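question for whoever is on the cluster today: can someone run the full assembly for these? two chains, 559 residues total. i dont have access anymore since they changed the login thing
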Amino acid sequence: MRQLALWRPGSTRVLPGFGLSMGISVLFISLVLLLPITGLFGQLAGLSLAEYWAIITEGRVVASYMVTIGAAAVAALVNGVFGLLLAWVLVRYEFPGKRLLDALMDLPFALPTAVAGITLATLYASNGWMGSILEPLGFQVAYTWVGIALAMAFTSIPFVVRTVQPVLEDLPAEVDEAAMSLGATDGVAFRRVIMPHLWPALVTGTGLAFVRSLGEFGAIIFIAGNMPYETEITALMIFVKLQEYDYAAASAIASVVLFVSLALLLAINIWQGRFVRRLHGGKG
Amino acid sequence: MRRIGDAPSVRRLLIGAALLLSALFLLLPLVAIFAQAFSQGMAVFWANVSNTFTLHAIGLTLIIALLTIPICLVFGVALAWLVTRFSFPGRRILQTLIDIPFAVSPVVAGLIYLLLYGRNGWIGGWLDTHDIQLMFAWPGILMVTIFVTCPFVARELIPLMQAQGSREEEAAVTLGASGWTIFRRITLPNIRWALLYGIILTNARAVGEFGAVSVVSGAIRGRTNTLPLHLEQLYQDYNAVGAFASASLLALIALLTLAAKAGLEWRASRREALL
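^ ran it for u. tokens below:
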């Protein structure tokens, strides 16, 4: 890490623009990212602890946490498997259409969530292309929690693929060869030799997909059906409270969502940092 | 030497599974958007797209994106320069803070702006007495769009500028170049493709943002309706074909974004091969 030497604390600043870039960055982060969060705390300050607790533990709200967390967990697990498969196929094999498949992986990030939402709702409705096949078989997707998990999985699949892919690419061929020349079968070699290298990235990608799913709104509300206690996600709960002009309740629920997602993001960052340090012998 | 999973049967099975699942899960929705938009023919599609409210929504969406991009660009370049070219206490914290918009639910993003700048907020109340309305008007839409899109440029630039290091710029300093000259002649040519991709991502998210915008816009048809809000209204009004006509325009932008990314990556890999 040759460049690291330039950042040693105490080294004199050679390049210009420190003041200007610091000024713009700090001003922007303060005004755009941090100041608005104070508005949330201002609103919460008007609530007593008992009132706050009553709002965030109300039956319908707790049901929405369950639906959101449950569907996000299922979506993250499915994406963990599906994402690993896609990353593996994209890195290890050559086949016609590979470049297109690779480009397609980013579609969920590029496609606006509302567009994804109405499209999935239309596809999986009982008269849609998928729904008309699945419903006679007994699988109801639209307006159930399965639909919520499907929408979450759609919007967050790139997190897993794009986190695992570079790690798999950097894995030297000797790793495989050593295992195979010692006579390991594919399954054993994958589990014992490849997975130990991959799983930190896989956990990070799946974790990011989970966090994204917890907050997703546009892609879900069209397919969810939004039945209180059944298929109502927490983000929609906040939206409903806002439309009732109940700003205090909306803020209280939002503070729970904000706290959980920031805590998870921090945990993923720390986890990633620890993993990088271990790989680079304590220097990363 | 044989590698793991090289057996023809395993290969075929895994490639087949990946293609089938991707086709069902990713490609089918994309096809469905355009199939629905054109399901009643070209004339109906055209009538839907050229309707006054749709045209207004397209215009507002483009204006918001055009205003968002330069602001995010200046911030992204400044932050990337700061954290990759200098060492100072708090550098890691700045890099973590920039991820906030990725972790915050869009609805929560809209809410915090509404609380602060809405009529009951401590800034909004003051603005209200001076007859300035930000929420439920286009400035509010612009503000939340900047919030949700601001990490993209910085996130594209930081890893690249870190990897490139600052030796070239330092050499220029010792030769007496000014800050602006260094940036324009050395840094900018090195980062231009990442910068372009950052702008493309910013644009894609800016035109498509839904959750945050729907909280602060008020969704007044012909006034504060962006294209994603407009298609939601059409969909709720059971005008699915109209909704998908608008959706197809957004899907087209998404496809152009993917094509641009593939093009830029192809360029980068070709350059690597030449070196």
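summary bc i know u wont read the tokens: The two ends of chain B are 28 Å apart (CA to CA). Chain B touches chain A through 103 residues (CB under 8 Å).
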